Amino acid sequence: MRVSRHGTGKPSQSNWDAVDKLADADLIDESLPELDETFWQEAVFVPGPKRQITLRIDQDVVEYFRSQGPGYQRRMNAVLRRYVQAQRHRR
Known about the structure:
Layout: H1 16-21, H2 24-27, H3 37-42, H4 59-67, H5 72-90
Helix pairs in contact: 4-5
């Protein structure tokens, strides 16, 4: 029996011998989405590099975003970005 490739030490339920025999073309999906007008209308463009600041945020708000898992600062930034976009749109 082969252990998990992720180092968990638990026995793997996968047939890794069969996977090892597959060609890259069988494993990798190289298809790209159609870059039509809909794609560009729904695309999200993020401005240049981030700026590090010190920001005081209520503890319960920080705990909520952290409880959602890794990437909580990115999600907080996304919420702030949507607010800015909504305010700009109102003008």
